[in-house]
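Researcher: I'm comparing several assemblies side by side, and this is the next one on my list. It has 562 residues spread over two chains. Same procedure as the others: predict the full complex and return the structure.
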Amino acid sequence: MKGYLIVLSLLLVAGSVAQAKEHPGKAYIEKNGYQGPSTCESKGCHPGTAKKFLGTVHWKHASPVANVDNVDPGKEYGMKNRIYTMCNGNDLVNDLKEIPPNPKTGKTKFTGCNTCHPGNHISDVGSTGKDAENAVDCLVCHSSAYDYRLRKPYKDEMGRVVMGQDRSVKAATAVGKPGVKNCMVCHEAAGGGVLLKRGFSFTKETDVHAAKKMVCVDCHGAKDHRIPTGYDPNNWAHDGVRVVCADCHGETPHKDEDNNRHSARVACQTCHIPRTGGALAKDFTKWTQGSDGFYEPTTLRMEANETMPVYAWYNRTVANTPAFIGPKGSRANQESRIYPFKVFEGKAFFDKKTGNLLSMDFAPPMATGDALAGVASAAKTLGIKEYEPVPGWQTIYFASTHLVTREKALTCFNCHSRNGVLNFRALGYTEKEEEKLTNASIYFDKVAAQQGEW
Amino acid sequence: MRKALKIKAAAAMTVLILLLAGGVAMAEEMKMVGDVVKIEIAGPDAKTAKATLKDTKTGKLVTVIVNDDLTLDKFKDHRIVVGDEIRCKYEVQDGKNVSKYFRKTAGC
């Protein structure tokens, strides 16, 4: 039954791609040009969409957060205002700007956390009203012919930093459902470089869904631009809609009932995403000068699939302290399942007075390497007058929910053996239980029978 | 007995030759960081492209052949353009530098 559902989904996906190629309104746009959202909303098409879009996480970069410790339930959180050691800045303190000239080269450049915001920066993160509606860059997500040379920051005649957009007829007449590249334009470069933050690539070589020609929005399918997200302990902002593997695959997707039994306490990702990758660790207290003369936080990089995840119980609620952001849960808690996580360690400055992590404006250290100047600039923006910066470490557990494999999925002996990937003692099992769980007797007869079928 | 020894020696020699041949065939991987100074790509259906990078350490110009679809697509829609700084790995195959890794150094 599940197989039929998947085939049906793929057929629907194929159908929607075909429809996207024949998006109506081409003649109208060719005749009248493309003026942005007002064109998308003209002729009775997509009415009110831009206004609704202003209420989504992609525009606000924040939302109420209900499953995380130590947050104010009355406030919204996201990359607009969060601080953690993968991204020590945020939209507020590290606003898109031209950084000071590098003393050696005299060169400057534009940078900021909100570079990926789909507005024009004049109408920025969380802005509202007609100007904001008109500033929405529909095509950066919806056009397959977008000229990314035009999406660059520049200074206008008033000295304001503006993010350019491609509003050409060519781009506007090639619209449809977002493809992988539309999403990855922003999402692959998060955290300071290509595939650093979450450490996955979405290609036919690295993910079984990509190999089936699926695109991001086939799973993260939006309604009114509210895009479903998973339960990454470090991705707090959400549009109130979620996506999990079982939405398509069901809770018992295997032919083998032993495998299906596991799904009660073991997440799909644990067996089907055996590797992770990306940045291992970063040091925001020491910036390294690159060959272009600019500085970047010192970063240890790995490729997708190059590192092993760590496994922990997770009940989809999140521990959040200055030293740790990660999963809560336990063996005893029946809501918890064992999930794989990408572990990241980041060093940055903490306030000795409060113990809290301090945020950083990247412009000063990017130009000169002076990390404390970045902390001072961020403190000024936030109105923090007294603080005592001391370096310290924070550990973050990122969800590992891509790089899905069928062929290389973990099998019985990958976990249930002395050198298996699961640390049963750390997961709350007794020494006796561990001995039993790591013995071949659990699966010996079954695997022997399977081998006999050859 | 002697015949068996001869067979074993011949087998060992074969393995050695294969290993050596494999070693010779293995191309050396080169790494560099450089700015894109030129991209040559023949239209939207191109299956290969040439990118010339200026090595930021040596100033030397290095031309690499790019064959992977992801990077070609980034050339086509200008997600990678002249002036971008690239971290590149390539192998020398038949006298040509063939890209194995071609990514912008920058992120947000």
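Model: For your comparison table: The two ends of chain B are 70 Å apart (CA to CA).
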